[in-house]
Automatic annotation (TrEMBL):
A family per Pfam: Bac_luciferase
Name listed for the protein in its UniProt record: LLM class F420-dependent oxidoreductase
InterPro entries listed in its UniProt record: F420_OxRdatse_Rv1855c_pred, Luciferase-like_dom, Luciferase-like_sf, SsuD_RutA_monooxygenase
Lineage: Bacteria, Bacillati, Actinomycetota, Actinomycetes, Pseudonocardiales
SUPFAM superfamilies named in the record: Bacterial luciferase-like (SSF51679)
Amino acid sequence: MARTDFRLRVLMEPRHGSRYDEILALARATEDAGFDAFFRSDHLLGVDANDRTYRPTDCWTTLGGLARDTSRVRLGALVGAATFRQPGLLATIVASVDEMSGGRVELGLGTGWYEREHAAFGIPFPSTRERFDRFEEQLEIITGLWRTGEGDEFSFTGKHYGIEANGATPRPAQDPHPPVIIGGSGPKRTPAIAARFANEFNGALGGDLRDRFAVFARACEAIGRDPDEARRSAVLPVACGSTPREAARRGEIMGSEFMRANAVIGTPRQVTDRIGELREAGADTVYLHIYDIHDLEHIALLGAEVVPQVAATAVA
């Protein structure tokens, strides 16, 4: 069942990395343009691992800054790498940023996939199966810590992680806890894990979005969960321009042919129409994937020409 509160968000993944002042400028532009949320990727390398100009920043450190330097937009990662941080620490980090923001944080989390990135920063990169096992245990711990009541203790014993009688559990501002976003194209473990833990399922890029949402719905039904309890979201790489030349110029900045193949590169009307197609496929939230962190005029154009059209269509 489609939700009436359709959400349009910005996802930042700058081609050559960024500094905090650049991230903040884009986040504030997103807020001013009327978007629902500002999300960032959780990467320490760019698509080109040999790009010596790439400037890495830590995802949750910058989100903590944005929590204090913005006032309205929701904030989060799409999606964080579970391999980067221990679950008890991550639960505390996210709860801290949630409190700093007044309850505007969402946790997007995945298994991690970029092996070269892990090697470059000395982060272990287990097999796919082990990463999924660890990911599931992390979600058990993070949500378990957040849901533990005052005066109670949380313990967990798994194959990869353990928590021993934690009576000082992290306290996010949101009740019961920040929304958890899980997504991907995997046909089995990803939707099964999302059915257990996700407040939002993201259909990722490429492939049949409608089919991925259906697989997620079946995974929910298999454990007795109403699939409509969770939101469904999509990512849309965007290069929007008032003229074809302007749109094409913005499209050239996208990081890969895969992104361009799944992008909309065109006018505000074309962007709006593509968002409408994603909504018809079942998405109630769309993240516009932006690559040029310095192009604040791009955000302003989307805010002026696309956000109002999408809002009008959503309530029609």
